[in-house]
Design goal:
Blueprint lengths: L14 H21 L88 E2 L11 H12 L4 H6 L3 E9 L5 E8 L5 H10 L7 E3 L2 E13 L3
Parallel strand pairs: 1-5
Antiparallel strand pairs: 2-3, 2-5, 4-5
């Protein structure tokens, strides 16, 4: 059996009123706490009377500045005197041509002879007027190489072929000396080229101004496998 309450004892009807009332009281207390002011009851301290007399002030004298010095007197400008540009100078110059020329002066023609060029005996020329030539010309030289040049066995075995450039000096009597390899290919070809040139017959020496001179030559010797 359910318990029944009388309408007058039902408190749920007044919940909203109590809530609003509590909220209003809380807000009021909060505002009162913020507005509350407390004062200190301590007695005020007596700082005493001020004895300074601010009326008796020292009079500061006005500073007087000295007047500026007077300006310097103006400088006197120099007086410019006009001088004429041209002054005629009269001077008489007497010229006396009292010379009796009876002999005719003959001026000899001066001939400047070219000084002879002294050529050193040991000087080696790279370029001369007349180039050295081998016996029989270049065709004779090629024939000499074909008969005396031997293909090295090492170079043939290794398949080396190419051109060896040999440098040598031809003396005034046509003999050959100072044979060197300028560019070689190896495999014994360089030594064979030097040997062939050293054993070559005498050349016709090079000439400079009609005189035989020592000349430096550069010749290629070609090795080619057949």
């Amino acid at each position: 059996m359910e318990a029944k309450k009388t309408p007058s004892a039902d408190l749920t009807k007044k919940v909203g009123m109590f809530t609003n009332l509590g909220l209003a009281v809380a807000v009021g207390l909060t505002l009162a706490a913020f507005e509350y002011k407390s004062f200190d009851d301590a007695a005020l301290k007596d700082l005493g009377a001020v004895n300074d007399n601010f009326e008796e002030l020292l009079d500061v004298p006005i500073t007087e500045q000295p007047p500026p010095p007077p300006p310097p007197p103006p400088m006197e400008q120099p007086i410019i005197e006009e001088i004429p540009d041209e002054v005629e100078i009269e001077e008489k110059i007497e010229v006396n041509f009292d010379v009796d020329v009876k002999e005719t002066t003959v001026i000899k023609e001066v001939v400047i002879a070219e000084a002879p060029v002294e050529e050193k005996a040991d000087e080696i020329f790279d370029v001369v007027e007349t180039q050295p030539t081998p016996p029989g010309g270049m065709s004779g030289w090629n024939e000499y190489l074909s008969k005396n040049l031997k293909y090295p066995t090492q170079a043939r075995r290794m398949g080396i072929e190419g051109t060896v450039i040999v440098v040598f000096v031809i003396n005034t009597d046509g003999s050959i000396q100072d044979v060197e390899v300028l560019r070689g290919i190896g495999g014994g070809c360089d030594e064979e080229a030097v040997k062939v040139v050293q054993n070559a017959p005498k050349w016709e020496p090079g000439k400079q101004r009609g005189r035989p001179v020592r000349t430096r030559m550069r010749l290629p010797i070609r090795f080619k496998l057949s």
